[in-house]
Amino acid sequence: MSDVLIKAEGVSKKFCKSLKRLMFYGVQDIARSMVGMSEKTGELKPGEFWANDDISFKLKRGE
């Protein structure tokens, strides 16, 4: 039995500084997925920034 309770690998999260631009990007992403185009998740669009990039950790019992 493993003592690892939570394991996260390669977790990244990006945010956009402008709500208006974020909404526009969201509509673009929905339209792309509807026509079968994939999103390039590793690239930043103008106004975006990485809050976390490629974070990995394990949480063991008792920690």
Which structural traits does this protein have?
two-stranded antiparallel sheet; 63 residues; single chain; 1 helix; alpha+beta
- Give the terminus-to-terminus CA distance: 17 Å
Indicate the overall shape. Answer: elongated
The string of secondary-structure elements, in order, is EHE
Count of the separate structural domains: 1
Structural class: alpha+beta
Count of individual helical segments = 1
Radius of gyration from the CA trace? 17 Å
Low-confidence stretches: none
Fraction of helical residues = 25-40%
Name the strands of the widest sheet in spatial order.
1-2
The proportion of strand residues reads 35-45%
Description:
By secondary structure, this protein is an alpha+beta fold. The protein contains one helix and two strands.
List the helices and strands and how they pair.
Blueprint: E1 4-16, H1 19-34, E2 48-60
Antiparallel strand pairs: 1-2
Provide a concise account of the structure shown:
The chain has one helix at residues 19-34, and strands at residues 4-16, 48-60. With 63 residues, the protein is of the alpha+beta class.
